[in-house]
Amino acid sequence: MTPVMSRRGSGVLLHITSLASPYGIGDMGSAARRFADFLQRAGQRYWQILPLNPSSSFLGNSPYSSYSLFAGNPLLISPEGLAGDGWLRLADIQQTAPGWEGPVDFRAAEVFKLGLVTLAHDRAQGMLAEHEGFQAFRAGHGPRWLDDFAAFAVLKDRFGGAAWDTWPEEFKLRDPKALELLRREARLELERIEFTQYLFFSQWAALRSYCNERQIRIIGDLPFYPTSDSADVWAQPEAFQLDGEGRPAVVAGVPPDYFSETGQRWGNPVYDWASQVQDGYSWWLTRIAHNLGWADIIRLDHFRGFAAYWVVPPHEETAINGWWVDGPGQAFFEAVRGRFPELPIIAEDLGLITEDVVAMREAFELPGMSVLQFSFGPDTGESSNSLHNHQRRSVAYSGTHDNNTSSGWFAQDLGEDGRKRLNDYLGRDVGPRDAAWVLIRLALMSPAATAIIPMQDLLGLGGEARMNVPSRPTGNWSWRLSPRQLSPGLADRLRGLCDLYGRT
């Protein structure tokens, strides 16, 4: 386990999009710094976020379904930051914005934010050739992912958003002459994409530095798969199991589990691990290094997929008729440890976990996840999610971004039998008004070295504040704070419990 997580500590799970903002969506502006100040006052050591990659309304705005595993989401760029850094004037960002209140309005935020970024590029393009920061960014990121991402984005726009496997052959197959001609003909379009990414990376580096100065570490999130229609698959088709037309031969998912009776058919292409092992997993090691440039620790999503992963025929509508295929196993993590000896990784080991998955996690001393909402079923005594079975080398959660809020869970999901088990476990009756803080207290008293609490639980919010319902295609990822919900009293209440349980 990475040394930074060996001490008792705790943190809060809140994605950037969920911050308060007048621009329709949370971003990397002043509200993010106020949240870091809140965490510091509350005695927290970690801020856990969701993936920072671009999202798409076509894919339900999920941060786990992105057209690039390397690019940053331009919707998270702060207009305040653009003005503060001199890319825009204050008058530019004081036009009508989508607003503070209510859920994230992804479409309105996209129109507003991308309009400002385009204006910033229009103003800056004459000086970018001599701008040291921008040129250093291009030189450092271009060969690894930025050149491919910019070309992909420009071609997607040129072909009306069509999937890359339907593009003209010279672009679909990445003919070098065609791409070189594109670089000459679309120089300004490519530069705008690159400049947008430079703005994102610059603002994120400043925000991360602000957090680290306050002894707050960022826990990032590394999605397992890219989407099929992504810059990653277009640029590295040999890394995936595709047919002769560039389409997935099989698609990814998970079998039926706690979240869904029919499983989850994700639809992503799966990896051709045999090809990746030939160069020592260099693409994956580059990904991990890239994400560690964003975060101090990364939560490795779908950890069990490294032991075995579920594949589904492309024509199937659900994930029921799939099967398991062996993953790269411990050999992959030997390569990761060779590059990153401290292994700053949390293993997302939820769902159907078999002995080989446990053995792989234990062999590399990676902390897994223990979710208290999962601990009050018929197997309370044996469940690894139950408080009395938590291991020191683990992370205790009241719930995750895929769970209902703890108040919503108590009212809507737990049921009478589960409520009786919870009452019996605690030796007292729990009501809907205190359910969230009961689970918060259990997480903080856990033997686990690290405890993470979703922000919605700290606020005692119900199911209306749930971040995601797995397998629901729309209506997710849109909850956000109001400006009045972060209070000194709430920070002090959390700190008091963390003091009591030795987490400050």
Summarize the SSE layout with pairings.
Elements: E1 9-13, H1 30-41, E2 46-48, H2 79-84, H3 90-93, H4 106-124, H5 132-158, H6 169-172, H7 176-185, H8 187-213, E3 217-222, H9 231-235, E4 251-254, E5 264-269, H10 273-277, H11 282-292, E6 297-300, E7 308-312, E8 323-326, H12 330-339, E9 345-347, H13 355-363, E10 368-371, E11 394-397, H14 406-413, H15 415-426, H16 435-445, E12 450-454, H17 455-458, H18 488-500
Helix pairs in contact: 5-8
Characterization of the model:
The protein is of the alpha/beta class and 504 residues long. The protein has one domain (3-500): TIM Barrel, CATH 3.20.20.80. It has 18 helices and twelve strands. Helix 1 (30-41) links the parallel strand 1 (9-13) and strand 2 (46-48).
Rounded mean pLDDT is: 95
Based on secondary structure, the structural category is alpha/beta
The third-level CATH topology is TIM Barrel
Question: Which descriptor suits the 3D outline?
Answer: globular
Annotated CATH homologous superfamily: Glycosidases
* Tally of DSSP helical segments: 18
The CATH architecture classification is Alpha-Beta Barrel
Share in helix:
25-40%
SS elements, strand count: 12
Rg computed from alpha carbons, rounded to a whole number of angstroms: 23 Å
The number of distinct structural domains comes to: 1
Give a nutshell description of this structure:
The protein is of the alpha/beta class. The chain is built from 18 helices and twelve strands. Helices cover 39% and strands 11% of the residues.
